[in-house]
Amino acid sequence: MYTFQILNAIILDVNSAFHLQKKNILIEDGIIKSISNITEVADKTIDINSNFVSVGWIDMRTFIGEPGLEHKENIFSVCQAAMSGGFTELVSLPNLLPIVQSKESLRYILQTAKASLVSIHPLAAASIDTKGEELTEMLELYQHGAVAFTDAENSISHPGLFIKALQYMKPFDGLLIQHAEDKKLTQYGLMNEGVISTYLGLKGMPSLAEEIVIERDLKLLEYAGTGRVHFSRISTKKSVELIKIAKQKNLHITCDVAVAHLILDESALVDFDTNLKLNPPLRTKEDQQALWQGLQDGTIDVIVTDHHGQDIESKNLEFDMADNGMIALETAFGLLLKHKPTEIDLNTIIEKITTNPRNILQLPQPKIMVGQQANLTIFDANHHWIFTENDIKSKSKNTPFVGHSMLGKIIGVINKNKYFIT
Questions:
Q1: HSE-up of residue 51 (Cα within 13 Å, Cβ side)
Q2: For the residues 168-191, what does the mean pLDDT come to?
Q3: CA–CA separation, 150 vs 419, rounded Å?
Q4: pLDDT per residue over 210-234, tens digit each?
Q5: In b/e form, how buried is each residue of 140-179, taking b as 16+ CB within 10 angstroms?
Q6: Closest to 283 in 3D by CA, of 185, 404, 192
Q7: In what order do the strands lie in the sheet containing 119-122?
Q8: Whole-angstrom distance between the N-terminal and C-terminal Cα of the chain?
Q9: How many CB atoms neighbour CB 195 within 10 A?
Q10: I need a surface site. Which of 163, 301, 323, 354 has the fewest CB within 10 A?
Q11: Catalytic annotation on 217?
Q12: Rounded CA gap, 305 and 175, in Å?
């Protein structure tokens, strides 16, 4: 029997009877044994001095690299980055080698991550090879551990296949995660289309490419009369408006936004930093403000890190040749608290990385209550610090935030009867 005790913890969990109360939490063999004002004798005790404990955070969009792309990221390194960033669970993308579209691929990910503190929930491809031509064996993949289906960086562009996917998933209430992009409109695009792209001489990616896919998919969902759709990494003001109207019609839709699109706009690209080359691209300040507003009013359900490790050979290139993506697990929370508007409170941020993604994916909800498995994140919401290269736990180093100030520091995470304290 191993006991672990957290002293002077302010519990941040709106679903707990102890919400915003300062308590001592005793954990025995991974199970919460008591929540009280009593100090117990334990094998290990940490006093967190009136800092916060919430249920463990989950990232709904992570590129894990393994199998096949281990030179960019692997399961061990991405789990290290997750723990450092306060995440106890990750939802992994299927765009690996081979693409995750078989029960063997799912088994490999689940078995490889089994011993880690961090739980990985794999997404499977919606269409074979994510080409949008023929559906995968969704029911079998669901039965073997796929929590939802997506073509990752590709949209399902064929309307008939989109409707067929919704119908195919109906018996098990499956979720289709859609990256909204009409690639015929964004071909050769490098950043958001607008004044700054013209000034920099870079071919633009119009907002329209995202918005027409969302508008079309909402009409198809309404026509099909069945299914659940989640739009991942929405980035424009119009996208927020479209989803808000659709929710008022009670369509079964949800969406997320990436941290980068909340804290940065297209002007950040004036120095041609390839670490900021993303898809969707960074948009305008007006779009950025609309995304924060969408979070506040509930239109946007989830915040994702969109963690995507890229090796130096993929980033240390001319801007037009570099691959998209940045690492983000280690910096997500510190950047969110640093840049959030004052009207966005801490509870809202935590809800978007705990309760909401698990509800959408129909995953078990951890609870801070006696008898429950301890799945916890411990953090100091008021700690100012500077992000350095030593703070990077990912295998790849593609981040623009080295040397930047952060607000909010991770103290530790607990999950699966394992503990990581920074």
A1: 18
A2: 97
A3: 32
A4: 999 999 999 999 999 999 999 999 9
A5: ebbebbbbbbbbbbbbbeeeebbbbbbebbeeeebbbbbb
A6: 192
A7: 57-62, 87-92, 119-122
A8: 23
A9: 12
A10: 323
A11: no
A12: 20
pLDDT in tens, 325-359: 999 999 999 999 999 999 999 999 999 999 999 99
Beta strands in 56-103 (DSSP E): 57-62, 87-92
What is the distance between the alpha carbons of residues 421 and 380, in angstroms, rounded to a whole number? Answer: 13
Per the prediction, the chain carries an average pLDDT of 97
Question: What value does the mean pLDDT take over residues 284-288?
Answer: 98
Burial of 345 (0-12, 13-18, 19+ CB in 10 A): exposed
DSSP bridge partners of 120: 90
> For residue 199, what are its two tokens?
């000034």
**pLDDT at residue 294, rounded to an integer:** 98
Q: Residues 143, 146, 147, 152: is their CA dihedral positive or negative? A: negative
How far apart (Å, rounded) are the C-alpha atoms in residues 355 and 340? 19
pLDDT tier at 85, thresholds 50, 70, 90: very high
Mark 181-192 as b/e (b = at least 16 C-beta within 10 Å). Answer: bbeebbeebbbb
Query: How many CB atoms neighbour CB 283 within 10 A?
Result: 25
Distance CA 384, CA 374 (A): 27
Candidate list 13, 301, 306, 391, residue with the active-site label: 306
Q: How confident is the model at residue 1 (pLDDT cuts 50, 70, 90)?
A: confident
DSSP structural state of residue 370: T
Per-residue pLDDT band at 5 (split at 50, 70, 90): very high
Confidence of residue 301 (pLDDT cuts 50, 70, 90): very high
Distances in Å between the alpha carbon of 37 and those of 5, 7, 13, 411?
Answer: 12, 9, 18, 21
Residue 317 phi/psi, 5-degree rounding, is -140, 175
Question: 3-state secondary structure string, 5-41?
Answer: EEEEEEECCCCCCCCCCEEEEEEECCEEEEEECCCCC
Structure tokens at 240: 């927020």
In order of their start, the domains of the chain are 3-53+371-421 (2.30.40.10), 56-361 (3.20.20.140)
State if pTM tops 0.90.
yes
